[in-house]
Every structure is written in structure tokens, then in C-alpha cells.
């Protein structure tokens, strides 16, 4: 697993639950180090063990933990770059949904070695979409559930999301019901960041 993903998991734990909880997870997982390095690769079993230990320490189902991680990835100020990458996908929630079909390609332009989930969005009927997601590690669909929930809020849209489970192939499916595209005023977004000086 790429170190950037593990580093994001570490930052989520530290920013949300504090350094003491992260230290407890490090000890329980018997990592042998305190911090993930963003540019290194780690065996998948290390990432799975950290996830397992984190969910156990927080007494939270792994699915809920992963969804919270997805929300963090686009809503916390420390990871604003991810939100910006996703917002370049479109002016409204529908454009954003279809832009997910190209997200892996866009991300690989910046980081060719980053192993992202394979994503595919398709319309089911008016106002309903299906997101198919597959990754070497299980649970990527729950991370996307959190990402989608946070991005809907970002656009001011009202959505109902439901994880539909796994297929034998490892693919996860999320149903997206877009109830209202302009339910509230979304967060402001500009193509260029303002420099404070």
C-alpha cells in the first residue's frame, strides 16, 4: 500500500482522535515505527492491521471508521488538496459524479505509483446513480461513502447513500440517490487558491 494512503490514515487518527490514540494503535499493531512515510510502499497486511487496531481501540465498526476516514479526506483543512482535486470534476454534483470515472487517470498524472480504487459511476434512473468500486484492500466502498457524503455537502446537494455490499470479485457498490441538487448553499470554491500576504 502506498505510503500516502497510510499517511492519510495516520493524519486522520491524529487530527480526529489525538496523538495518544494513534500511539496506542501503533503499539497494538506492533509497527516498529511511529510515522508512515508518504513516499514509501508498505505491505497490505500492515495497512489492514492498523485499520483493525484503530477500529478496536475506538470501539467502532470498521465500516463506520472507513466512512469517517472518507469524510475526513475531503472536509478537513489539513487535506484541502484532495477536496480541490475532486472539485475540479464539475460545477455541480452530477458533473462531479461522472468525473469520478476519470479520477484514477487524473491522480496517476500526479502520482503514477499511487494505487487508487477503480471507480465507475453509471446512471440507474432519474436522480439515481450506481458507483462501482474495487481495490486490493476491502472497504474502499465505505471510504467512498464518506467521500460522497462530504462532497454532496460541499456542493449543497441532498443525497441518500447506501453501501450495497461486496461481490465475489471484490467489487463494492454504492447507490447514490440525488434528492436535491441545490438543497443548501454549498461551500465556496475557486479555481486558484488565494495567497495571503
UniProtKB/TrEMBL annotation:
GO terms for molecular function: heme binding. It comes from the Bacteria. InterPro entries: H-NOX_domain_sf, Heme_NO-bd, NO_sig/Golgi_transp_ligand-bd. Residues 2-156 form the Heme NO-binding domain. This is Haem-NO-binding.
Amino acid at each position: 500500500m502506498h505510503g500516502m494512503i497510510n499517511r492519510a490514515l495516520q493524519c486522520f487518527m491524529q487530527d480526529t482522535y489525538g496523538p495518544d490514540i494513534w500511539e496506542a494503535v501503533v503499539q497494538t499493531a506492533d509497527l516498529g515505527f511511529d510515522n508512515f512515510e508518504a513516499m514509501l510502499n508498505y505491505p497490505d497486511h500492515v495497512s489492514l492491521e492498523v485499520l483493525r487496531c484503530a477500529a478496536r481501540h475506538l470501539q467502532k465498526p470498521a465500516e463506520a471508521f472507513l466512512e469517517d476516514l472518507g469524510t475526513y479526506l475531503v472536509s478537513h483543512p489539513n487535506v484541502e488538496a484532495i477536496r480541490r482535486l475532486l472539485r475540479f470534476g464539475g460545477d455541480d454534483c452530477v458533473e462531479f459524479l461522472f468525473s469520478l470515472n476519470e479520477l484514477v487517470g487524473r491522480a496517476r498524472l500526479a502520482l503514477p505509483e499511487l494505487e487508487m480504487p477503480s471507480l465507475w459511476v453509471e446512471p440507474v434512473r432519474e436522480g439515481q446513480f450506481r458507483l462501482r468500486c474495487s481495490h486490493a484492500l476491502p472497504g474502499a466502498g465505505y471510504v467512498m461513502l464518506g467521500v460522497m457524503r462530504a462532497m454532496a455537502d460541499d456542493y449543497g446537494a441532498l443525497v441518500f447513500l447506501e453501501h450495497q455490499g461486496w461481490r465475489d470479485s471484490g467489487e463494492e457498490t454504492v447507490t447514490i440517490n440525488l434528492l436535491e441538487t441545490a438543497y443548501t448553499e454549498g461551500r465556496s470554491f475557486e479555481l486558484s487558491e488565494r495567497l495571503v500576504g
